[in-house]
Amino acid sequence: MTQKDAYTDNSFSQRLLKWFDAHGRKHLPWQQNKTPYRVWISEIMLQQTQVTTVIPYYQKFMERFPEVTDLAVASEDEVLHFWSGLGYYSRARNLHKAAKKVVSEFSGTFPRSVEQLMALPGIGRSTAGAIASISMGIRAPIMDGNVKRVLTRYFAIHGWPGQTRVANDLWEIAEKLTPESRTGDYTQVMMDLGATVCKRSKPTCQACPLEDSCIAHKLGQERLFPESKPKKDKPEKSTIMLMVVNQNGEILLEKRPPSGIWGGLWSFPEISDPEQITEEAQDKTGLMLRDYDIWQPFRHTFSHYHLDITPALTFVEYPEENTNCVIKDSDAYCWFALTRPPELGLAAPVKKLLQKVERTL
Fold first, then answer.
1. What residues make up the domain containing 250?
2. Is 43 a catalytic residue?
């Protein structure tokens, strides 16, 4: 088969679908009862996240929110709680917003067009295509990381796929290759081939149904495609996280702003100067500082910068005349009980620090 054949006689899709029938993945949780809602949740979770990591999160999420209406009426805190640990929390906030929109504007039924799906928060062209093709049988191409890898290798397409020129070329190719029938299976096989055969660092080309016509393989240059994003040094930032513990063994948490890093999640109050520990702990709680201990710093890396975190375990106590903790703004702060943890969305490093505090107390 030549590259020209791939466009003209459906040889590309036919060979892939034959391989899918014999080797494709068919038993993942989201491949059962393929409703638009279930496919949508899986596609959002699988962005930037491995299948093995997603499976337990998906199962718990679907158990708690089995239908889009269940997700729409839930609180943001509960949604973020079931997302805690998956990262990229804007995905969860957009899921919540989109669920509300599906219920309010479409009576709980997902729209049946790529354009309308893309109008929902957090759904781009590739995700819309996956929902439409897998759950509705609509012919629509996708362009996730697996598809980019397969196409750039097969056609030896130079340039980083994030560049507009390269992205446009890939979408044009994907549109031409997507078959008129079995569109859901074709979408799945493109993802499966990239995930299990055309892997990033160790492709098993001998198992690939496209081996004899893949240009990168013929050139022995599989590992050169897709080309990487030009590297930039990540900036470094630092913060001190105040882990304020009261006499009940509860820990003060602060709700972060709705946008930005860890948006909408609960975290520890942050300061930049250790000299602020006493003032901040007393100001935020109305309690007296008894003692504090600064722990060893550690690094948490985001996609675009490194954050060096210094935890400060801080103990406060009630004045004799006061038996209750005072919090100035109860919507922005709460006392987190380690023995009875509420269902809140927590950033991964915060969850780990809470576990460490529990072992320390």
1. 236-360
2. yes
